[in-house]
Amino acid sequence: MNSLLTPEPTSISFTEPSLSSRAMLCSLSIGVWSARKHDPEASQEIASLHGASSDAGRYNKLLVPRRALEEIHKIINEARQEHYFMTLPWGDDGYRVLPAAAYMQHTEAMRRHLDRFTPAVDSLVHRFEDLVAQEKIRLGTLFNYADYPGIEVDGDELKLLAADELRSKFSFETKVLPLPDEGDFRVSLGDEEKARIKRQITATVEASLQVASRELWQRLYEAVVHMAERLQAYKVTDDGVEHPFRNSIVTNLMKLVDVLPKLNITRDFELDRLTEEVRASLLIDPQALRESESVRTDTAKAAAAIAEQMAGYMSLYAIPTCTRPGTPA
Fold first, then answer.
1. Do 153 and 44 share a domain, yes or no?
2. Would you place residue 265 in the very low, low, confident or very high pLDDT band (cuts 50, 70, 90)?
3. How far apart are the C-alpha atoms of 296 and 273, rounded to whole Å?
4. Which of 23, 178, 230, 315 has the largest count of CB atoms under 10 Å?
5. Are 150 and 160 in contact (CB under 8 A)?
6. What is the pLDDT of residue 156?
7. Rounded mean pLDDT of 109-117?
8. In a shared domain, residues 192 and 111
9. Are residues 219 and 305 in the same domain?
10. Do 172 and 197 fall within a single domain?
11. Same domain for 299 and 250?
12. Amino acid 94: pLDDT
């Protein structure tokens, strides 16, 4: 007999949200003026000077000094790094998996980079005429005003009369697409062919997500191993500190444990568990790690123990345990 206080089991089932409702595909496309130009005449002259064939080499002019675009390239590199950090690998078409849980954070991050990118481009446009005037002297007879977008001859001077032509060389755009879902495949085909294509979609998504899951494990594993190695190498001597470490061995882990739960769209329980173990054991104030040998030693041991646990799981799932350059897998 059932207790009046104990409800009988019901047949209500809870449907697991589809993967396409938990993630999307996102691309980051950034365009930038190369500031380089192949000069066929100079290439031919150099080949003739050395008695070489005309196809022996190419002379590429650097149209402005590298420092002129330094700030723009810095912003681009930081934007791409953050985009990759907050997304997962997908295919080779430029799109990556963006979990819905990380969408707003990713959108805000890209907006911040765009808010820096646009003024940096404006600054280049503002000083472009002066830059070109300087390059006319630096490049000598290699100078050709037609190499510079928007520059035209105005009387005896070179003027930026088509600024939009220069601006068009720069772009910053994110695009979002839905993740493929076999349940949304509605093309009118025969049942057998439709079933085959749906299976293919499912297999493609699963294969891509396996790659994404491996990357998450790899990110955390490498950060934990790096901490263990740096803390073990750190030594205080009479002459000072040998093998000092940067605060980033902790701050990078802090960023990872913050974003990994959002990126774990396959809901890997072990990855979540180890992420929380890292949060509880390894996020120690870097200065405390430097000042206290016991804290440093205990944290290094904890990092090594977590790395050992991860290595076991990664071996079980055939995930390489190290991809850092110069270190054997």
1. yes
2. confident
3. 23
4. 23
5. yes
6. 80
7. 97
8. no
9. yes
10. no
11. yes
12. 86
Do residues 160 and 213 share a domain? no
Residue 22: phi and psi, rounded to 5, are -110, -5
Q: Which amino acid is it at 38?
A: H
**Token digits of residue 226:** 């790096």
pLDDT tens digit string along 41-59? Answer: 998 989 898 988 888 889 9
Mean pLDDT of 29-51: 92
Amino acid sitting at position 34: S
Query: 165 and 194 in one domain?
Result: no
Amino acid in the structure at residue 155: G
The number of distinct structural domains making up the chain is 2
Which residue in 46, 31, 45, 37 sits closest to 64, CA to CA? 37
Helix (H) or strand (E) holding 26: strand 23-31
Structure tokens of 58?
């190419």
Question: Is the model's pLDDT at 153 over the cut of 90?
Answer: no
C-alpha closest to that of 102 among 219, 258, 272, 273 = 258
For tokens 């646009």, what's the residue?
A: 118
Q: Quick one: which of 70, 71, 63 has its CA closest to 134?
A: 63
Q: How confident is the model at residue 206 (pLDDT cuts 50, 70, 90)?
A: low
Given a cut of 90, is residue 209 above it in pLDDT? no
Whether the CB-CB separation of 160 and 166 falls below 8 Å is answered with: yes
Question: Helix, strand or coil for residue 216?
Answer: helix
